[in-house]
Write a sequence for this structure.
């Protein structure tokens, strides 16, 4: 990730077990500037169906869809799915985590960081927003989810 994007972090997440927080617009900029950066949507398939998924086709890639939680509890395959998506612990690829409103994505960034992935960032406000506009509310692209992973 570029120095300018990383300097725009809302706080230094390093003290919280991950690299930091980015607004949705900052996350989009990081994805535009770093062709190796990966966006991971950690919401559930039901949420993907309801709201859609981040559309990165203009950046010639797809978001990784990897739910952090299942109805039974934590997803035991979460970290393995990151590896299947081409990430490797220690590869220093920027990983941006997004959820519905910015809570689960913090946990995902912490978990990924502890496993050696990243630098891992949380996307503030998530897809739908919480205290402010999220990915969708900032006009960033979404597409319908068609059942793919």
């Amino acid at each position: 990730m570029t120095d300018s994007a990383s300097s725009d972090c809302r706080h230094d997440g390093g003290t919280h077990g991950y690299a930091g927080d980015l607004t949705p617009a900052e996350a989009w900029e990081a994805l535009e500037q770093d062709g190796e950066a990966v966006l991971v949507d950690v919401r559930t398939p039901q949420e993907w169906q309801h709201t859609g998924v981040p559309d990165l086709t203009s950046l010639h890639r797809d978001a990784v869809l990897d739910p952090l939680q299942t109805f039974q509890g934590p997803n035991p395959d979460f970290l393995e799915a990151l590896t299947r998506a081409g990430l490797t612990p220690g590869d220093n690829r920027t990983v941006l985590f997004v959820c519905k409103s910015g809570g689960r994505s913090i946990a995902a960034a912490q978990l990924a960081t502890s496993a050696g992935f990243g630098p891992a960032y949380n996307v503030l406000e998530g897809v739908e927003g919480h205290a402010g506009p999220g990915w969708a509310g900032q006009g960033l692209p979404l597409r319908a989810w068609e059942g793919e992973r």
The helical segments are 3-7, 24-33, 45-51, 78-84, 104-114. Strands lie at 20-22, 38-41, 53-54, 64-65, 69-70, 73-74, 95-98, 120-123, 142-143. The first strand starts at residue 20 and ends at 22. Confidence is low (pLDDT under 50) at residues 1-9.
